[in-house]
Design goal:
Layout (H helix, E strand, L loop, with lengths): L6 H13 L4 H22 L10 H13 L4 H20 L26 H6 L10 H17 L3 H5 L6 E2 L4 E5 L5 E5 L2 H17 L21 H12 L10 H14 L4 H8 L4 H4 L1 H17 L5
Antiparallel strand pairs: 1-2, 2-3
Helix pairs in contact: 1-2, 6-8, 6-10, 10-13
């Protein structure tokens, strides 16, 4: 891979991009983490990742250095995960027999409950005012919000949607998630109607564009939307909502899961809808549900009055 001198790291990043088909953002994050560790080891100990004789205490010294520089425990743990994945790859490919990560543990982190918007906030929320002639942008932006909240999909999943991913007759959308895993999520008739209305305006504008992208959601010039634009659209829409300090696509995903759970959905079904690999990732939403139950108890139980 261009720009990476360590052959083992280059092979691993190529594996992520071309075999596991990870997103550009994910591949770049892994590459950044590994190269940061590589530079530290080369500078301080004249040894690199994947080299024979690299011991766990040298990697641990890098982790200590990160914490001394004020890097958050969650960020450090992500870097540790990157190294674990790297050494797992090397051992599977028989590129090394050593694994200095065997004695490296994740740092303890404070439990952080996911932020979410209240149901009433999202039901009463209004789209920002658009200027005359911005019907395409308005329909697209409204559709982005509805897709996030109605399906719980991730930002990267939304950006990669194509028209062919939707089954009108079955009211379903096929989502390509992490690790190239597909899942089917139901959609409502009203969401399908919003998609068709947006597509009508998009297709009319396509006559003005040169080589438009075949993705569902496009920019004003017919290009695939970039993550920053989607983030800005969500923030613009959710800024007035008081029920969460955070304003991001992922908060809409959290809201989708929390509201399903609060309204009686089975947690295993929510796991499948979100595309989680394990139930442990989904169970964090039960904490929000428990908080809601505590509130209901305090408001309604006779002994509390």
């Amino acid at each position: 891979m261009e720009g990476i001198e360590n052959e083992h790291i280059a092979k691993y990043i190529d594996h992520l991009k071309y075999e596991k088909r990870c997103s550009e953002h994910t591949s770049r994050s892994y590459s950044t983490d590994l190269m940061e560790c590589e530079d530290y080891l080369r500078t301080n100990y004249q040894i690199g990742l994947g080299d024979k004789g690299l011991k766990h205490h040298l990697i641990r010294s890098w982790i200590v250095d990160l914490t001394k520089r004020g890097i958050a425990a969650r960020s450090v743990n992500r870097k540790i995960s990157s190294l674990n994945g790297f050494y797992k790859f090397l051992r599977i490919r028989n590129l090394t027999t050593e694994n200095p990560m065997k004695k490296i543990s994740q740092l303890k982190t404070p439990e952080r409950l996911p932020s979410f918007f209240s149901e009433s906030d999202l039901m009463e929320a209004k789209m920002p005012i658009y200027n005359e002639g911005e019907m395409f942008e308005m329909l697209r932006d409204r559709l982005i919000i509805n897709l996030f909240y109605n399906t719980g999909m991730r930002k990267s999943e939304l950006l990669n949607l194509r028209d062919t991913d939707f089954d009108k007759s079955r009211l379903e959308v096929r989502i390509l998630g992490k690790g190239n895993k597909e899942r089917i999520v139901p959609i409502s008739p009203s969401l399908l109607q919003a998609i068709e209305e947006y597509k009508q305006y998009r297709n009319e504008k396509a006559a003005e564009w040169e080589s438009p992208s075949n993705h569902l959601l496009l920019s004003n010039t017919g290009k695939k939307l970039d993550p920053r634009t989607v983030y800005a659209i969500v923030k613009k829409y959710t800024s007035p909502l008081p029920s969460s300090d955070k304003k991001s696509p992922h908060v809409l995903r959290h809201s989708f899961a929390t509201h399903l759970l609060n309204n009686g959905a089975d947690i295993n079904a929510i796991k499948e809808l979100l595309g989680h690999a394990s139930l442990a990732a989904t169970q964090i939403y039960t904490h929000n549900s428990i908080e809601r139950l505590i509130g209901i108890y305090k408001d309604t139980h006779p002994r509390e009055h």
